[in-house]
Specification:
Radius of gyration: 25 Å
Shape: globular
Largest sheet: 8 strands, antiparallel
Helix content: 25-40%
Structural class: alpha/beta
Strand order of the largest sheet: 3-2-4-1-10-9-11-15
Number of strands: 27
CATH superfamily of the largest domain: Aminohydrolase, N-terminal nucleophile (Ntn) domain
Bound molecules: 6-O-phosphono-alpha-D-glucopyranose
Length: about 600
């Protein structure tokens, strides 16, 4: 939520910041702004996308070798020019960009107003920078000291960068709860919410930790804690290719990411499984595997699509490893005094590794003595750093706001975790273990076969582009697939859609079915096949339109459906990895036919760093 970029060095800052903001636009896109030292400390900001800001600034003299920029996802104050960042301090001596929420801003604001401060926006961030300047003036201290004192008094989450009119070779940044990365070049520094704006300039980065302040002054980076002790900056090498964050010929990131799945699933398994010698190792879990072996209960916490991956994992862990699994929305879990025992194992799933509710749920479970495993995509993000152990997805950057390749990589990694546990516990036979490894290894090729049907799925999408509602049905491990299919459609096409366990249909949703209602049914050949055939009959009897996802070669359901999409046969537990692909494509094409912006759907953000 909200993307921040800053630069100080010897190049022109404006083009670097604008390009960086475009890369971070997935984090929010309701307004954008930039502050530069071109003659004076000037702030330029505009409601709308980064491209609107760029257009607004066309032809202006923007030369500066230092600057800060922001793309916003509104929390305090509606999207507007005045609420866009950066924000000036009272005397316009400082400007700030901020990602996060200052919870005690109202009382700070009141106090500052009482002492004559005038605010020009409804944001908490403007209060923050007024507060810093106020401290600087009253305590007659340096900006760095004022930032430190201010941070010890604010409650909430932040990644901030501050620029000062008094020094055009200085940026001061800090973080708590919201991400911040510093790219270290030769006599230049790049600051951003993630590494994507940085990668084309340098692959050396420092991840700022919570409660650290970064001072970049006269080409030198110093990191201090909020208690004022020095921390040596730990420079890491980025393992990220520029092409991974570009569209590479696809119309949208979402489509590119859907089509990347044969590779991303393979990458999630790379070096971890080899069916030829029955090998399965998740290196990051090794040290804590005994805790998982001895636990009676696994609690999975996640949000959004990651929660759906957790639901799939529940079926797989219980079936293979015979362990009790509960799947929780992180936001519900953290606020209801959950029962956590010391032996409990928590698996936190998150693509971004930054979701505020998931992070808070982890801290809560940790404080009660649980062991936390992370399943995340973004390397170096907050969740992997807050967990005891974990396995990265290695899916590569996911930029489309609607998650696709992260879901299949999550299910792949969680399946490997379940298999590894089951093998060690002896809850599956060696032959079944081997069979599942072989089937897993074949998934990428099978995904390719489904992607080859994209034209057919596009055709079906056109037929249903004007539908007002959609119902998605699935049973067992495919029930979460129905939920995920419905979520994808809602997110990017704004069509109301619901996912249901097929057998539950008769307890309510069946009342909605008429000739206008498309019903997408995951109806593959598994042990609930006969039952799902009956559910399809029930839809047909009420004149609903059936789009069935069936196993290749199936003919019975073909006859009773309006449209079928075939997917290759695989082990029952692995069907979600295949069945979700046509549902992703269906939602993508429907959204395109409806003229929606699939990569930046309204009101959503990819990384939800606020509660
Ligand atoms: C947002 C995104 C979703 C994502 C969810 C959880 O809502 O738009 O695509 O599934 O957050 O994010 P996480 O990064 O924790 O998986």
């Amino acid at each position: 939520m909200c993307g921040i970029v800053a630069y100080v060095g010897h190049r022109e800052a404006y083009p670097i910041i604008i390009k960086g903001l475009k890369r971070l636009e997935y984090r929010g896109y309701d307004s954008a702004g930039i502050a530069l030292m071109n003659g004076d400390l000037n702030v330029y900001k505009k409601k709308g996308k980064v491209a609107d800001l760029e257009q607004y600034l066309e032809g202006q003299k923007l030369n500066s070798t230092i600057g800060i920029g922001h793309t916003r996802w509104a929390t305090h104050g509606e999207p507007s020019d005045r609420n866009a960042h950066p924000h000036y301090s009272e005397n316009k001596n400082l400007a700030i960009i901020h990602n996060g929420i200052i919870e005690n801003y109202a009382s700070l604001k009141q106090d500052l107003e009482n002492r004559g401060h005038v605010f020009h926006s409804d944001t908490d961030s403007e209060v923050f920078i007024h507060f810093i300047e106020d401290i600087q003036q009253n305590a007659k201290c340096s900006l760095e000291e004022a930032v430190r004192l201010a941070l010890s008094k604010v409650v909430g989450a932040y990644a901030i960068v501050i620029i000062s009119r008094d020094n055009n070779n200085q940026l001061i940044a800090a973080r708590k709860g919201s991400p911040l990365v510093i790219g270290v070049g030769k006599d230049e520094f790049f600051l951003a919410s993630d590494a994507t704006p940085i990668i084309e300039y340098t692959n050396e980065v420092v991840y700022v930790n919570d409660l650290e302040i970064a001072i970049i002054r006269d080409n030198k980076l110093t990191i201090k804690t909020i208690e004022n002790t020095d921390n040596t900056p730990y420079i890491q090498k980025l393992d990220l290719e520029l092409e991974a964050i570009e569209k590479g010929g696809y119309d949208h990131f979402m489509l590119k990411e859907i089509f990347e799945q044969p590779k991303s699933i393979k990458d999630a398994m790379r070096g971890r499984i080899n069916s030829e010698n029955n090998h399965l190792v998740l290196g990051g879990l090794r040290d804590y595997m005994n805790r998982m072996l001895s636990t009676n209960r696994i609690v999975i916490i996640a949000c959004g699509t990651s929660w759906h991956a957790g639901l799939v994992a529940e079926y797989i862990f219980e079936e293979l490893a015979r362990v009790n699994v509960e799947v929780e929305y992180a936001s519900e879990f953290r606020y209801r005094n959950p029962v956590i025992n010391e032996g409990d194992v928590i698996i936190a799933i998150s693509q971004s590794g930054e979701t505020a509710d998931t992070l808070a749920a982890i801290e809560l479970a940790k404080s009660k003595g649980a062991i936390i495993f992370g399943v995340c995509n973004v390397v170096g993000s907050s969740i992997p750093r807050a967990t005891h152990a974990g396995a990265y997805l290695h899916a590569g950057p996911e930029i489309g706001v609607a998650s696709t390749k992260a879901f299949t990589a999550q299910v792949t990694v969680l399946t490997m975790m379940a298999l590894s546990l089951a093998q060690k516990k002896g809850t599956i036979t060696e032959s079944k273990f081997h069979e599942l490894l072989v089937d897993l290894e074949q998934i990428p090729t099978k995904v390719e076969q489904i992607l080859a049907q994209s034209e057919k799925i596009k055709y079906i999408s056109q037929e249903f582009k004007d539908a007002k509602n959609f119902l998605y049905l699935g049973r067992g491990v495919n029930f979460p697939v129905a939920l995920e299919g419905a979520l994808k459609l809602k997110e990017i096409s704004y069509i109301h859609a619901e996912g249901y366990p097929a057998a539950e249909m008769k307890h309510g949703p069946i009342a909605l079915i008429d000739e206008e209602m498309p019903v997408v049914v995951v109806a593959t050949k598994d042990n609930s096949y006969e039952k799902i055939v009956s559910n399809i009959q029930e839809v047909r009897a009420r004149k609903g339109k059936v789009i069935a996802i069936v196993t290749e070669g199936e003919t019975h359901i073909q006859k009773m459906s309006d449209f079928v999409i075939e997917i290759p046969a695989t082990h029952d537990l692995l069907v979600p990895l295949l069945a979700v692909i046509p549902l992703q494509l269906l939602s993508y094409y429907i959204a395109i036919y409806r003229g929606c912006n699939v990569d930046q759907p309204r009101n959503l953000a990819k990384s939800v760093t606020v509660e």
